[in-house]
Write a structure and sequence with these properties.
Length: 253
């Protein structure tokens, strides 16, 4: 009976993937970026209502996951196993996944505030580095904890990790970045990291927008402390002078 259920499950997934529009939707999500149903409808060349029906089917089969960020709703692949299965099929079909091209102003895309934590390319790269180095450990799909070495890293920045864990909010969690469509670090730890970066003048903040600018000192410190080597092309977004905005000021999303 168990084998029979597995056969049914395989056939249902295969049928879902076999539909051309769903195939386009799934393949477009293989780059790790989340997309809205409107974007996916354009990619799949179907109407918005048809795309919604396809996404509902894919979600029911646990092939995609829905992310709700305020008023926005994004879809991503459910997990790495789905991507691996699609990659195997692509080898057979000899197809390439389309790439995601963000359309966000350069300064906001590179670094900005998201509520009280950091967002943008810089924040996503830092988030990925924290996980890659083993400082940040995923406990489930919506929460992180710090490893022993991660504790030491943040304590060295003057961040009281134990105190943060007692606050009535998530300690550390992934927050979907609307320009990169990949997670950056949210929660009280993300907020504390942004405050530390502002205080140490690693980044500076505009008075009239949510844009952040990386300073030359910040580039150096991120490399030394986190091993984060940033692309050269981001240098034009850096500042050498402190910001005029107070370090405690935050702009909402």
């Amino acid at each position: 009976m168990h084998a029979e259920h597995q056969d049914i499950g395989v056939s249902q997934v295969a049928a879902a993937i076999a539909e051309p529009a769903r195939t386009k939707i799934l393949c477009s999500l293989m780059d790790g970026h989340a997309r809205t149903s409107t974007e996916l409808a354009t990619i799949a060349e179907v109407s918005a209502s048809t795309a919604s029906a396809h996404l509902a089917k894919l979600k029911d089969l646990s092939l995609v996951r829905l992310h709700v960020q305020g008023r926005h709703r994004y879809y991503s692949l459910a997990d790495k196993r789905v991507a691996q299965a699609l990659e195997a099929l692509m080898v057979i079909g000899q197809n390439a996944a389309p790439t995601f091209k963000p359309h966000t102003p350069d300064r906001l895309q590179f670094a900005r505030t998201c509520y009280d934590h950091m967002a943008g390319t810089l924040a996503v790269l830092l988030h990925d580095r924290l996980i890659e180095a083993g400082w940040l450990v995923e406990t489930d799909e919506q929460a992180y904890r710090l490893s022993g070495s991660g504790d030491a890293l943040f304590l060295a920045l003057g961040i009281e990790v134990e105190e943060l864990s007692t606050l009535r909010r998530k300690f550390a969690c992934p927050c979907l970045d609307w320009s990169m469509r990949r997670p950056h670090l949210g929660g009280s730890l993300g907020a504390a990291l942004l405050q530390a970066a502002l205080k140490r003048k690693w980044v500076t903040q505009d008075l009239d927008s949510r844009a952040l600018a990386l300073t030359a000192l910040g580039r150096k410190e991120l490399n030394v402390r986190f091993g984060l080597a940033l692309p050269i092309e981001n240098r034009q977004i850096e500042r050498s002078q402190p910001a005029t905005a107070p370090s405690g000021s935050m702009h909402t999303r």
